[in-house]
Amino acid sequence: MRKIAVFIVLCITIFSFGRQLTVFYLNDELYPVSVTYECENEDVVVFLFEKMSNPPEGLTTFVPVDVLKAYFIVEKSLVIDLCKSQLAVLDFQMERYFVHQVLITLFTNFSGIDSVYFLVDGRKRDVLANYVDIRYGFPRQIWTEWPVRGKE
Predict the structure, then answer these.
(1) Quick check: is 150 in a domain?
(2) Domain annotation covers residue 114
(3) What proportion of the chain, given as a percentage, has pLDDT over 70?
(4) CA 121, CA 99: separation in Å to the nearest integer?
């Protein structure tokens, strides 16, 4: 019963209408910059990925367009399935910042999510594209702050 209640709360959080969402981008010095958007889209995760892949003028992103294939929730974890062909262009630095940008954005917007897992083309892999180890989940307690230290 408790699992069903948690699932319902997470679904309401993810599919809520008309809420403010925070998306993180990078400035020229690769420091995080947050931008708040009003979301009226029924699919908040899709909305966040669309925004992350299309930064405002003067900001940078390492989230490729159309990288999100699917997502689903398992208890308090969000599982993100990504498109391998879209990740293929990422070098080490880009791949690392991609992970940072996605995780800080998701954890900032979804308080009910305790961890994020990545799949690539529907499969569990050892690395995201070529470098970042994704064999294990990324827990909230480590990823709620920008892991790369700098100005905010």
Answers:
(1) no
(2) yes
(3) 82
(4) 16
